[in-house]
């Protein structure tokens, strides 16, 4: 359990869900972890829970809004002061904005892009100069299977997630000569509060849940820990030649042909 020993990782949106699972897995593998999260209390609680559960864990909670470049820069500086230069960044913070394109408000459009795409760029921009200078770094952007497939009624979330893949590939190519790797993970349905909120927002939450579970070939949805395991791999020295790439974690759902 020392695959990330000596590394400093910053995970956005780490207060709960997939981000919290990644922060926990990173700490268990020996990384010092900064939980950069909008909900400061959730970040503190998760950091405490990791510190209590993982022997020798080094964690720091920093209230952070990924939509604000100065806030993200402050989190990176706090990480540097506490543990040293950030070598791993996980841009995980994200929100669902699902609307009808023509009735959606301008505010919904801006809110979606501010978190789901600008937030990823703000993270990259805050860590890249130092990673480039040190010629070492792994950035992991949490995209979605919505980055490849469109589900009607989910606009504009998939547009932002397509952008995350574009940003991942562009930055991966730009900084490959500097030994900085930029990759994405595209989860399918993963059971988090976000998923429960979506089910609960449907006219028949039970039917929505059942439909979600019926669709994938494995007849289940994923667990946050299953995404975290891949994040550990991409953050580690086991993936030195994986760059500008995306790993899908959906139990095969996007490969399934629907009649
Ligand atoms: N759950 C899924 O099925 C699923 C599937 C595919 C992709 N994803 C993606 O995975 C990521 C995490 O999703 P989740 O299901 O764990 O969501 P979640 O809502 O459970 O957790 C997201 C966390 O991000 C934080 N956050 C939101 N806005 C922020 C901001 N401006 N600055 C900093 N933190 C902010 C929230 O407070 C929350 O703690 C998101 O990017 C999401 O789009 C989730």
Automatic annotation (TrEMBL):
Which Gene Ontology molecular-function terms are recorded? oxidoreductase activity, acting on the CH-OH group of donors, NAD or NADP as acceptor; quinone binding
- InterPro entries, per the entry: KR_dom, NAD(P)-bd_dom_sf, Sc_DH/Rdtase_CS, SDR_fam
SMART domains reported for this sequence: PKS_KR (SM00822)
Residues annotated as domain Ketoreductase: 7-145
Q: Give the source's domain of life in one word.
A: Bacteria
Oxidoreductase: present as a keyword of the record? yes
- PROSITE patterns given for it? ADH_SHORT (PS00061)
Q: Which CDD domains match?
A: SDR_c
Q: Which UniProt keywords apply?
A: Oxidoreductase
User: A Pfam family matched by this chain, by name?
Assistant: adh_short_C2
Biological process per Gene Ontology, one example term? fatty acid biosynthetic process
Q: Which PANTHER family match?
A: 3-OXOACYL-[ACYL-CARRIER-PROTEIN] REDUCTASE (PTHR42760:SF133), SHORT-CHAIN DEHYDROGENASES/REDUCTASES FAMILY MEMBER (PTHR42760)
Record's family? Belongs to the short-chain dehydrogenases/reductases (SDR) family.
Protein name from the UniProt record: NAD(P)-dependent dehydrogenase, short-chain alcohol dehydrogenase family
